[in-house]
Amino acid sequence: MAALLVGLVGLFAWSANRRWHLMTLGPNDLKWDKIADRLRATYRFAFAQERMRRYWLAGVAHNFIFLGFVVLLLRSLILFGRGFDADSSLFFFHSGTWLGDIYALLKDIFVVLVILGALVFVYYRVVAKLPRMTLKIEGVIILGIILSMMIGDIVYDGAWLNIKAREAGTAVAFHGWEPVGSTAALVMQGMGDGALKFFAHAGFWIHVALVLIFLNILPYSKHFHIITAVPNVFLAKQEPVGRLAPIDDIEGRVEREETLGIKKIDQFSWKNVLDFYTCTECGRCSDHCPATNTGKKLSPKHFTVDLRNFLYQHDDALRTNKNGTNGDGENADASEAEHQKDLVDGVIDPEVLWACTSCRACEQECPVFITYVDKIVDMRRYLVQERGEFPNELQTAFRSIETSMNPWGFSPDERANWADGLDIPLISEKQDVEYLFWVGCAPSYDDRAKKTTRATAELMLQAGVDFAILGPEECCTGDPARRAGNEFLFQMLAEQNCETLNGYSVKKIITTCPHCFNTLLNEYGDFGGKFEVIHHTDLLAQLVRDGKLKPTKSVDKSVTYHDSCYLGRYNEIYDAPRDVLRAIPGIKLSEPAETRDRGMCCGAGGAQMFKEDEPGDARVNDVRTDQLLQTGANAITSACPFCMRMLTDGLGNKERTDVEQLDIAELLLESVGSNDQDNIPTN
Ligand code: SF4
Ligand code: SF4
Fold first, then answer.
1. In DSSP terms, which residues pair with 348 in a beta bridge?
2. Nearest ligand, CA of residue 294?
3. Residue 188 Cβ < 6 Å to ligand 1
4. C-alpha pair distances (Å), 137 with each of 141, 222, 678
5. CA–CA distances in Å: residue 595 to residues 271, 294, 565, 639
6. Which of 52, 328, 631, 646 could join 621 in a cystine, given CB atoms 3.0 to 4.6 angstroms apart?
7. Cα separation of 158 and 73, whole Å?
8. How many CB atoms lie within 10 A of CB 81?
């Protein structure tokens, strides 16, 4: 036992040290703030495994195995002790003591539950062969090890109880505190002394040896998550999920010729690498990815697994700093080394990166809180800012933002044209307003989106909301530039907009665009902007609740609602738009099968709005439109100008002129009453 422990625990320590070293090559971004929140999240998502509840059978089976491992860890320690003293029970857990009996009962229950859990996964892997899973033999071997450990434990108990009974001159009997062990003892009671001794030794050594072998397999397999999942959940992002970390001192980095974004594997941060270690290859992320589901090259699971495999393949070279790398991957001596090659093209196809809509469906689904958008944007940052490589259409958007402060190149002087005929002040003329109405680029210039802008403004005027607009002083928030990887352009816009907003001492902002909403609320804080930001659906729901807007006219429509990713998954605004719809008499609301946090992206986010879909089997917006049409509704409602554009195109592609596409504000205005909807100026 001593040789086994020293040898195999020592070997594990050696492997763990290698993994630690590999993880800590890049920048240390581990956060130790908000400990109470982190502990709460660890309890909910690592121990109670809340995200597994939607997969009820897999969730229950996984819980059995996870909790079984926690309970049986003590059993393994007791058995290690018995390698030195056959009667050892770690001081407190002797049979006949209350602690010993309770633990024996718990242990027996969990041995059975672990067996049941493992059998469910054997079924998934061997019989059902779930396509989302990576069906490698490794998974089956691990399940075989788990089952063998449990069976070994039962056999050991059965034989050991018989041996002890014979030594005491008594007969074995069923024992309520050891239901499984004593049942096994009853089954084995007819065996001779030699056979009992053989089975006691075999069961004992199978259990203890497999525990230690299993421990040594972990760092080299997807089962490493058994060790890394709890810390990965504990260290998960506690700041808003919609905030991308800025590149600090971007101008200084340019001057010092440091890499912007991620070019090489050793530039991933500690937490990024912990993510790689923690992926269980369950495939739930890819199952819900709109890019994967429309046949694009991007599969989030494979993105992680490919990077992890590359990291592991070059483990030695990376850890030993072969060829004198400096951690930033810039050392000339190292530039030709395989482990220092550019990840884009070398490991990850650029199409993979450009297919991401930044919808976060993958992150929402991942049971162990692995993130994708930050890594994909970091790799886009490198492509855009260092290699100058990005889809052609984005060039037009970038240039237009730089010159005209909007991605389409319209004149800034026309930015407030949508408000012609409405009595809306510019903030430069009326600074003591309660709210600034941040209009956004699409709602200012896009003919279809302007109807929503105007409807929202009219509703606010009717409800007596005190607001003004920036007009020509408003610039693109920079969301498309940032998600496309052009951090330099984003930071320029963020600084300029914050200066403008702070110059007018703006404290409360209303916006109809979820992308502007997310950027203003979650990202401008890094650039000096601190405002309360309210999405128009939240405001309208409140105005209806307060009786300031009275939807009295019946709107006889059967509608379905499409959740914008940046409103729902990014900012958890799911109820307000639905509350407004429910408040409108005559509206019949039906939900699509893919709804709320599982709603499918429209295909516009992550700067996709300004480029073509990457090659695939279908367009994302067409698939989403199909899902919404399956509800049979005669109107699709949304609360985002980008979603509106993509779904309107989707309906057009299907020639469904019988189905309308409307914003929540337009429907509310129809019920509250207005004659203005045809009076929209166009550019
Ligand atoms: S953010 Fe959306 S598109 Fe991007 S990888 Fe995740 S699920 Fe796929
Ligand atoms: S990233 Fe998460 S959801 Fe995707 S395969 Fe890995 S563990 Fe599963």
1. 344
2. 1
3. no
4. 6, 12, 64
5. 30, 18, 11, 14
6. 646
7. 20
8. 17
Ligand 1 proximity of 377 Cβ (cutoff 6 Å): no
Beta bridge partners of 535: 511
Strands 508-511 and 558-561 come out as unpaired
CA of 370 relative to ligand 1 center, distance in Å:
12
Residue 355 has pLDDT above 60, yes or no: yes
**Which one, of 484, 479, 350, lies nearest residue 406 by Cα?**
479
CA atoms of 171 and 169, how far apart (whole Å):
7
State if residue 289 touches ligand 1 by the CB under 6 angstroms criterion: yes
Q: How far is the CA of 479 from the centre of ligand 1 (A)?
A: 17
Q: Which pTM was predicted?
A: 0.94
Q: What are the residue ranges spanned by the domains of the chain?
A: 32-229, 250-389, 394-672
> What are the tens digits of pLDDT across the range 266-275?
999 999 999 9
Specify the CATH architecture of the domain 250-389.
Orthogonal Bundle (1.10)
pLDDT digits (tens, 9 = 90+) for 139-194: 999 999 999 999 999 999 999 999 999 999 999 999 999 999 999 999 999 999 99
* 3-state SS assignment for residue 269: coil
Which residues have C-beta within 8 Å of that of residue 169, sequence separation ≥ 6? Answer: none
* Phi, psi (deg, nearest 5) at residue 602: -80, -15
Distance of alpha carbon 33 from alpha carbon 487, whole angstroms: 26
Number of H helices, E strands in the chain: 28, 8
